[in-house]
Design brief:
single chain; mainly alpha; 1 helix; about 0% strand; rod-shaped; Leader peptide; Cys_resp_CS_actino
Length: about 40
């Protein structure tokens, strides 16, 4: 039962982590470009 619940939640967690990773990459990219402009 418990393992089944975890397997169900994994896709949602993976998607959340992927979105967070993309946001962090965008933020890092924005910081790098702003530093280059300075």
């Amino acid at each position: 039962m418990v393992s089944h619940d975890v397997s169900e939640q994994t896709p949602g967690t993976a998607l959340l982590v992927a979105r967070l990773h993309v946001d962090l990459c965008r933020l890092a990219s924005a910081m790098c470009t702003s530093r280059a402009a300075l």
